[in-house]
Amino acid sequence: MADQVQQQDHGPVRVLSMVCGTSGALTAGVRAELMQAINTANEAPEIQAIVLTGANGRFSAGINVLDYSAPTPCETSIGATTRLIEDSAKPVVAAIDGVALGAGLALALAAHGRVARRGARMAAPDIKLGLVPSGGVTQRLARMIGAEGALDLMLSGRLVQAGDGVIAPVLDAVVDGDPVPVAIALAGRLAQSGLWTRSGARSDGLADPQAYMRALVAARPRTKEGAAALVLRCVEAAQLLPFERGLDLEEVLFEESVASDASCVMRHLLIVQRRAAKVPGVSLTGAQTVTDVVLTGPRGPFAEVTAMALNAGWRVWLALDEGQRSADLIQRVAQMYDGEVARGRLAAETREARLARLHDGPASEAQLVLEMGGRGVEGPAGAARVRITESDGVRPVAHGGMMWLRLHAPAHSASLAELALPEDVQPEQAATLIAAMTSRGNTGAGKTVLRSAPMPGMLGRNMDWAVWTGALALVATGHNPYAVDAGAEALGYGMGPFRHMDTEGLKVVLARLDHLAAARGQPAHPENSLLRRLIAQGQTGVRAGQGTYSYGGAAPQKRTALDGGLYDTSLCARALHAAVVNESARLLSTGIASRACDLEVMFLQGYDVSPDKGGLLFSADRAGLLRIEADMKQFQSLAPHIWTPHSRLQKMIKDGVGFFGRAAAP
């Protein structure tokens, strides 16, 4: 019992410290132990009052997002916990340090007194997950600070610090040091007086009914739907209903919000992004702090990679191949920064500071060598070497410790990178690279790094192959290419496959399709395809001014010569979704991808897939993989290598699971 709630008596006052772990989450186990500890303190004749605080300088970060999807026993719900605190036979004072978020704030509000360290942060961030605050937050907060302040905090989810005016009525004291001694003294005084006000009986926030109503009316235009509308109903109820009935309504509306599509999507997005932020199989122990990088090799997006490194706060040393002019590269980087300064995105002083870290010549020391093709220079001893690649040349063999990194374009601003590690990679060098790429601020590139097996195409280019091949197969069987793009956009893609191919350049696309087809044991791209015809006519995409679309105006234009055939956007969307799902199953089965969350984040960050439906794999889970498989069988004859259901997918359907562990819908 003492593991998650520590107890220490200070005379007649018992201090209960919640040990919420590294995440600060108020788990069901912590709540159960806390409830038992409060009951025990109430039964102990020598204890007159209780102080509730958090261990390690943090009150509580609230409920873990995963817990919202798991059944919670009523007896240990946050509502039951806060009711127990409020109904305690002995006064309870919360000593708030660090953070009190969500359910943590609910515990503090349920207490009979609150003392906070100056700078401690409090928030009801539930709205950011599409949820109604629970545990009585909507009722107690409105009664304490009124409708305007309560709606401000709950509809924004913003953090406020102890001492902020909006939260001031909630706190009995704000102190510069440890809040626990002051809370002990306050709890002792309340016990001695025998008088304390339960938070549900507070009415200071209701003192001006007209102001309360004005705040409700003012909030109505921005609270017409979703969790915001439910929050407004709860705050209305705080004025109109007895406290207990208000709590009952809040609980019902909270459960409604938990089950809503919007909240399920928001929680899924948060979970996959958190999981994808940690590269599997690599410990960051032993990572060197990167201050200097060497940029070398014969070809590649030098200016963008240089800007990425400078933006990360590193010194960059150019070691270019013969025939390359460092002065030209430096000028291109300077022009990139000039454009940002002109658009107001970068201060002129910052531009100068970054360019001052760009050097032409060998580095005496560096922790990272970014190699743009070839072998380049060796670089300083012990430096981690990584080949910047488009992933076509990645091979499934140990390669002298060489790591492969695909930076999604544009390298200096895109948030995504893919990493393939050879079998013989040195753990410290992998750790140095990953820490450098994922760290934010002035110490790293701030990217999400997705791990891939060292296979041609890695994650993104294999997915491109499946989607592009599927799109071209649809056109070959009579479908309008613009209907295919419209179907992709309806699916959530920021850009359809034909626009994407035009942007990449059709010659590059064709070479990639044939290269990856050979690596996968599939036939080369058909000789009579639209892609080969356009290339033969010199219509190779954006740079040529014409591909599947015409370029040169404000926006790409459809070409009359290609705007024919079947125009069924819904069918095209289903076909592309089926291709994506099937390829995802293949990537997971072969181990090229290790986790579904990596693929989902790749779609969201690498392809600008709309998050409205949670992502392509999440929406497949919710639609039901059995239905997706039926779509595959419908399109299978068009391109068997794209739409023949993968064995991994068939097993998932048989086992009744989805990509994220959910049972497939019938």
Can you describe what's shown?
This protein has 666 residues and is α/β, with parallel strands linked by helices. It folds into three domains: 255 residues, 2-enoyl-CoA Hydratase, Chain A, domain 1, CATH 3.90.226.10; 161 residues, Rossmann fold (3-Layer(aba) Sandwich); 196 residues, N-(1-d-carboxylethyl)-l-norvaline Dehydrogenase, domain 2 (Orthogonal Bundle), CATH 1.10.1040.50. The protein is 45% helix and 12% strand. It is built from 24 helices and 19 strands. The chain has an eight-stranded mixed beta sheet with strand order 12-11-10-13-14-15-16-17, with helices on both faces. A six-stranded mixed beta sheet has the order 1-2-3-4-6-9, sandwiched between helices. Helix 19 packs across helix 22. The longest helix is centred in the C-terminal third of the chain and has 22 residues. It is globular. 49% of the residues are buried. The mean pLDDT is 92.
Structure summarized in a few sentences:
By secondary structure, the chain is α/β, with parallel strands linked by helices.
- Overall shape: it is globular
Radius of gyration: 29 Å
Quote the CATH topology of the largest domain.
Answer: 2-enoyl-CoA Hydratase, Chain A, domain 1
- Whole-number total of structural domains: 3
* The CATH C-level class name of the largest domain: Alpha Beta
Q: What is the correct CATH architecture of the largest domain? A: Alpha-Beta Complex
Query: What proportion strand?
Result: 5-15%
Estimate the helix proportion, in percent.
40-55%
Q: How many helical stretches? A: 24
Estimate the mean pLDDT confidence: 92
Question: How many beta-strand runs?
Answer: 19
Distance between the termini: 43 Å
**In the CATH hierarchy, what is the superfamily of the largest domain?**
2-enoyl-CoA Hydratase, Chain A, domain 1
Structural class: alpha/beta
Query: Biggest sheet, open or closed, and with what strands and sense?
Result: 8 strands, mixed
Low-pLDDT sequence parts: none
Spatial order of strands in the largest sheet: 12-11-10-13-14-15-16-17
